[in-house]
Design a protein that fits this description.
4-stranded antiparallel sheet, Pnp Oxidase, Chain A, alpha+beta, globular, 2 domains
Length: 249
């Protein structure tokens, strides 16, 4: 049975057409998270992320695709104010981590935060470490897949470090559950990669510099570079061969 809404003999809504147009949808439960330490944190801890968090992709139970906000400033030049873009801010993301019986994941994030700010039981407590030692070069990569196992979305967060870890419950009431905790991560910026998205091309007159799809390096599949300000371009902080941010100006 087909249900439709008609006005003056014209169909405005049709279930069959809606289902056909909607097609297959992305599901939020087919995903994976991967974390990698930069050179600074590796030197500080003396071990890589694969050494200390070998099962992180399985232990990370929940997270979010990051978001960002463009702040504006009002320009009063007569008449209604014109809102001009001023800056961009990236929203912290939260992760829920499942604890193994050795509490390795909890220990590593506690230690990581101790690297950021020296805790009270050390001499020089309260001292803040250098950014290079706890954040620079660290990446968190989030993959989302379709039901066939193909990557449909990839976000790489740059210069990641934890700013908060949650408390954990200890109670006799919870028998059929497992221990978990939340981590809030800060990062400098992120690079999105959507392999199957339709992009505009300059030949089509829609203003994009490159004619191919963007890959994770910020280049298009036809080899052309994406310039800052392109309608379909992805801008990442300029970095040298070692991954260090190049500050301009």
């Amino acid at each position: 049975m087909t249900t439709s809404l008609t006005v003056t003999g014209q169909s405005l809504f049709n279930i069959s057409k809606f289902k056909a147009a909607l097609g297959s949808v992305a599901r939020p439960n087919i995903w994976r998270a991967e974390i990698k330490f930069g050179d600074g944190l590796f030197r500080t801890l003396g071990k890589s992320s694969s050494d200390v968090l070998p099962n992180f992709s399985y232990r990370c139970e929940r997270t979010t695709i990051p978001g960002k906000t463009i702040s504006t400033v009002d320009d009063y030049g007569g008449g209604p104010p014109l809102k001009l873009a001023q800056d961009v801010t990236y929203q912290d993301i939260d992760m829920t981590i499942i604890c193994a019986t050795d509490m390795q994941e909890r220990y590593i994030f506690e230690t990581w935060m101790n690297v950021v700010v020296l805790p009270g039981f050390y001499a020089g407590s309260g001292l803040v470490n250098y950014y290079n030692n706890y954040a620079l070069g660290n990446t968190l990569t989030l993959y989302q897949y379709n039901e066939l196992g193909d990557v449909i979305l990839k976000y790489t967060l740059h210069d990641v470090y934890p700013v908060q870890i949650s408390a954990m419950n200890l109670t006799w009431e919870e028998n059929n559950t497992y221990q978990r905790f939340d981590v809030t991560l800060n990062y400098r910026d992120y690079t999105p990669y959507v392999p199957n998205a339709i992009t505009s091309s300059a030949e089509e007159g829609e203003g994009a510099t490159g004619g191919g799809d963007l890959d994770e390096t910020g280049e298009t599949s036809d080899g052309s570079e994406v310039e800052f300000g392109d309608s379909e371009g992805v801008y990442d902080s300029p970095r040298d061969s070692d991954g260090n941010i190049i500050f301009i100006g």
